[in-house]
Amino acid sequence: MNLDNLIEKFLEYCKIEKNFSQLTIKTYSISLNDFVNYLEAEYQNIPKIEEIESNDIRPFLGYLNDKGLKRNSLRLKIAAVKSFFKFCKRKNHLELNPASSVSTPKKAKKLPNYLTEIEVSKLLEKLNTEIPIDIRNGALIEIIYSCGLRISEALQLNLSSIDKSSLLLKVIGKGDKERVIPIGRKANTKINQYLNIRAEICKTSDIALFINKKGKRLQAKDAYNAIHKAMLGITEIKQKSPHTLRHSFATHLLDNGADIRSVSEMLGHASLSTTQIYTHVSIERLKNAYKQAHPKA
Questions:
Q1: Long-range contacts for 280-289 (Cβ within 8 Å, ≥24 apart)?
Q2: Which pLDDT band holds residue 248 (cuts at 50, 70, 90)?
Q3: Known active-site residue 243
Q4: Is the pTM of this model over 0.70?
Q5: Which of 77, 136, 246, 247 is catalytic?
Q6: Listed residue (200, 54, 49, 186) closest to 125, CA to CA
Q7: Going by fewer Cβ within 10 Å, which terminus of the chain is more open, N or C?
Q8: Is the model more confident about 205 or about 296?
Q9: Does 174 qualify as catalytic in the annotation?
Q10: Exposed, middle or buried by CB within 10 Å (0-12, 13-18, 19+), for 92?
Q11: Is 150 a residue of the active site?
Q12: Which domains does the chain have, with CATH numbers?
């Protein structure tokens, strides 16, 4: 059976037996058509299925890369090819699967959005220091930014989480792992301002640090909306969220010479490789500054 017929059978299998969506089937069809075109371009004719080896499949990625496809598109296309050969092996059209040893490119990591240091200052200045809710939101923003917290971590803080004598914050992160983070001078000031008016939001015996108007622990949705609203008009980045503040924390520390291992520990990352995305941000900023400023760039 020739390659075109097998591809038709595979797409039919995806539709009837696997019940894949029309979009997935179309993606597979386009990807496999690209693969056939690659074989034709490389070998001047389309080889029989049993003649195709791993070394015939691997250059397909380079062929696509030369056409300007991005990494995530490469991943989708090679995944379609691997699924096709897996089908051929399962249906006994092949004794061995030549695509099984072909690796899939790693998913491209998007550089995180972050605020500039000036934008962070403007964000905090925007909030009205005479309105209790704004004072609370300012303390929440400052503690996320100054300590690099996830929004879930910030909202789980209790009054007892802050060690005022040593200016340290005890945080329970992913997997219930506890970490200790220093509290900066500005963050400490904002937190103290908030604690002084906390009862004006609501008199409550709740142990939560950040409370709502009912005296209960502030919920993620309300915190997200408050921070998103505060960021409007401050920055042009698309992602206006609490996590942007966490990204800003890491980016600004590394920009100013902080040790990546220390930053990783403060962020609560399980692996140093997770933190390394922020070094890419700094490098990109350097490249952009070079291109804008250097006469020979």
A1: 280/109, 280/111, 281/111, 281/112, 281/114, 281/251, 281/254, 282/251, 282/254, 282/255, 284/111, 285/255
A2: very high
A3: yes
A4: no
A5: 246
A6: 186
A7: C
A8: 205
A9: yes
A10: exposed
A11: yes
A12: 3-90 (1.10.150.130), 117-293 (1.10.443.10)
Dihedral over alpha carbons 160, 161, 162, 165 (to 10 degrees): 70
Annotated catalytic residue, options 18, 109, 174, 186: 174
The amino acid that residue 256 corresponds to is N
- At residue 133 the predicted structure's pLDDT band, cuts being 50, 70 and 90, is very high
Q: Residue 297 pLDDT > 60, yes or no?
A: no
CA torsion, ordered 143, 223, 278, 68, to nearest 10 deg: -170
- Give CA–CA dist 248/93, Å, rounded: 53
For the cut 70, the answer to whether the pLDDT of residue 72 exceeds it is yes
Closest CA to 105 of 66, 67, 65, 68: 65
- Based on the residue annotation, tell me whether 126 is a catalytic residue of this protein: no
| Model confidence pLDDT, tens digit, residues 175-186 | 888 999 999 999
Among 9, 86, 150, 217, the active-site one is: 150
Does residue 170 contact residue 163 with C-beta atoms inside 8 Å? Answer: yes
Give every CB contact of residue 50 below 8 A, 6+ residues apart in sequence: 94, 95
The catalytic position among 9, 75, 89, 243 is 243
